[in-house]
Every structure is written in C-alpha cells, then in structure tokens.
C-alpha cells in the first residue's frame, strides 16, 4: 500500500508539512519513493503564474537534448529552480533536477488556453520519448503554476536531500505520496501523483480493471493517454476525460468509476443522463481496493473510495486549511487544532469536496437524500 498526504490552504506552506505527515504514516509505506505535485505556487514562482513550468530530471546529455529541442520550438527560458542538493547516504543523485519556467513561442502567445494546453502536453510527451530509452530525460509536468518533483528513496531522507526544509519552495495545494510499489519495478514514471492538463490524482490501492480501462482510454485518440507504468495512472486520465474532454461536472467522476446499480439510478433526478453514462462509459468502472485524492484546474480537491471501501481515508481541518490523508495520524500532524468531531471518513457513495482556497468542505453522495 501507499500513503497519501494532500493539503489545500488559503496561505502558502512548505511541502515539508506533507512529508512530515507521511513520516507519521510510515508503517503504511516502505520508503521506496516520493512524489510531490505543487499547485498555486508561491516563493520565487509567485509572480510567474501565467508561464508554463517544465518539471523533471535529466542527465548532462539529456540537458543538451532538452535545451536544443526547446530552442527549436521557440520557448524562451525565463527562470529556473534547482534544489540545493545535500548528499544523503543511500540516495543516488542524478545530474539535474529542475523546474524551468518558459515563455511561450511568439506564434503561440495569442492561441487559446486549450490550444496552449495541447501544445504543452505534446511537447512534454515528445521530450519523454526522447529520453525514455536511456533515462536521460524524465518530464513529469509542463503546465502553468505547477511543479512536480519525484525520486526514489525514503520521503524524509529525500526532503533532506532536496533541502526542502530550507528552500522557499511553497504552494497553496500540495500532494505527496510515499510509495510502496507492489505491482511494478521502482520507476519514476510509475510514481504518483499523476498530472495531465490541470488534473491530478494519487491513489492508495490497486486497480484490477486496469487493462480494459487503459484500452478504452487509448482508443479515444488523445495523445496524452499513454505511459501507464502504474495501474493507478488511469484514475487521473478518467478525471481528465470526464471533466475536460466530455465537460461533465466533477461529481460524475464518482458516478463513472463506481457506477450505481440500476435500481439506485432510478432514485436520481438525472436518471436518464446517468443511465447513458453507465452504458457508454462502463469500461471505466474501477475494480479493486482504492482511495483516490485529486484536484482540478480551479483548485478544487476531492477524495473518493472504491465501492467496497477497502482503503482508509480521512478529511478534516479548519476554514482556510484542510488535509486529505490516508490515515488519521497524518491529519493530526498537519492540523492538530481542528474539531475532530467534524472529521470526514468517506464511504462508498461519498465524494468529499474541498472548495478552492480551502473555504469549505462538503460531502456529495451518489444517492439522493
């Protein structure tokens, strides 16, 4: 199993908060890796929100390839963040860890946001393919106001390795996963969180319906539905497909991955739409024990469970700061001063939704009251 620590706040905070929460949940992960995704950035990125940020790792050879390709496309590098590495025993240092801020090529500056998103995604995919065979380039995200950092090792040791306790890297939404990889080899592209065009998820569990879901998504003809080094990456792509590509409201994501029985659908006022949803998107129904945490482009955060509620999850906090955690001890670490009676443990029909800016939390239920 994995352990997940997500925090959404009205104020900027450091990813060290997430990592310390992971440390309290360490019995649930083996320290095989850390993945971080930061949204709504502060610090040195605060005034650069309109520019896309390329996050990744590369070798010296990969850096030359990356620089040449970005120059060829017309991207102009305007800022670069690189962690101040401190050697830590057992962690193998790679040549370059980076979050690079670029200005768009001149002929792309006046394109629509949707066109820009596709351009950035296709650029990321091309760079990934260029460096994947020899692992000279890893790219995890290329999107405005998003930074992603991943590496193999114990989360707390990696925080020291990257100097996160002393760096000014901060954000208002941060997702972190401490990873125990039970189904695949240790590989950076298999490490959560997963991100595509403003949508992000991370998962504790396993998805035994992975193959039919993957085949359905890949049949959509969308170039971003690729990779799949982890059976959990499809959760992010289902979210993207339902919300961005089909334009459905966020709550339909829950209806798609854990569809109601036909007799339960009859109780819903939108039963006709829901029936069509169930029939047409049946291949996206998940199977196996899962708890999923995600965010959308507007900063909404959520938690959902599989239909059998076979993985733990809890949401709690105070107005202006909420945490979505695998375990209660992680929530206690991050927000100890909250009213514990208001903690939410979502069940099989629930979707816990935290509004942008961490203003409020609500529970949406698939069954009408």
From TrEMBL:
The lineage of its organism: Bacteria, Pseudomonadati, Nitrospirota, Thermodesulfovibrionia, Thermodesulfovibrionales. InterPro entries: GATase_2_dom, Ntn_hydrolases_N. Residues 2-355 form the Glutamine amidotransferase type-2 domain. Gene3D superfamilies: Glutamine Phosphoribosylpyrophosphate, subunit 1, domain 1. This is Glutamate synthase. It comes from Thermodesulfovibrio aggregans.
């Amino acid at each position: 199993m994995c352990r997940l620590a997500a925090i959404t706040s009205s104020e900027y905070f450091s990813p060290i908060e997430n990592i310390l929460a992971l440390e309290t949940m360490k019995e649930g992960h083996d320290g095989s890796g850390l993945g971080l995704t930061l949204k709504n950035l502060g610090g040195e990125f605060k005034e650069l929100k309109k520019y896309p940020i390329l996050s990744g790792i590369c070798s010296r050879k990969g850096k030359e390839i990356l620089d040449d390709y970005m120059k060829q496309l017309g991207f102009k590098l305007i800022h670069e963040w690189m962690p101040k590495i401190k050697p830590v025993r057992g962690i193998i240092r790679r040549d370059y860890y980076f979050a690079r801020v670029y200005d768009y090529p001149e002929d792309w500056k006046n394109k629509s946001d949707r066109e820009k998103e596709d351009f950035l995604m296709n650029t990321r995919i091309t760079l990934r393919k260029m460096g994947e065979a020899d692992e000279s380039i890893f790219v995890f995200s290329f999107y405005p106001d998003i930074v992603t950092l991943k590496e193999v090792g114990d989360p707390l040791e990696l925080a020291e390795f990257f100097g996160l306790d002393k760096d000014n890297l901060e954000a208002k939404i941060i997702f972190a996963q401490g990873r125990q990889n039970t189904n695949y080899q240790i590989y950076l592209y298999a490490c959560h969180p997963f991100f595509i065009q403003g949508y992000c998820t991370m998962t504790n569990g396993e998805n035994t319906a992975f193959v039919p879901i993957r085949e359905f998504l890949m049949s959509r003809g969308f170039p971003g539905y690729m990779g799949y080094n982890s059976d959990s990456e499809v959760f992010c792509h289902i979210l993207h497909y339902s919300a961005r590509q089909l334009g459905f409201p966020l709550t339909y994501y829950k209806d798609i991955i854990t569809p109601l029985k036909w007799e339960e659908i009859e109780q819903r006022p939108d039963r006709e739409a829901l029936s069509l949803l169930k029939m047409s998107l049946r291949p996206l129904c998940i199977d196996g024990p899962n708890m999923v945490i995600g965010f959308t482009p507007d900063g909404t955060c959520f938690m959902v469970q599989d239909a059998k509620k076979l993985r733990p999850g809890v949401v709690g906090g105070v107005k202006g700061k909420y945490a979505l955690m695998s375990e209660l001890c992680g929530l206690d670490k991050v927000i100890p001063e909250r009213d514990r009676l208001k903690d939410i443990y979502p069940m099989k029909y629930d979707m816990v939704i935290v509004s942008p800016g961490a203003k409020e939390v609500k529970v949406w239920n698939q069954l009408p009251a």
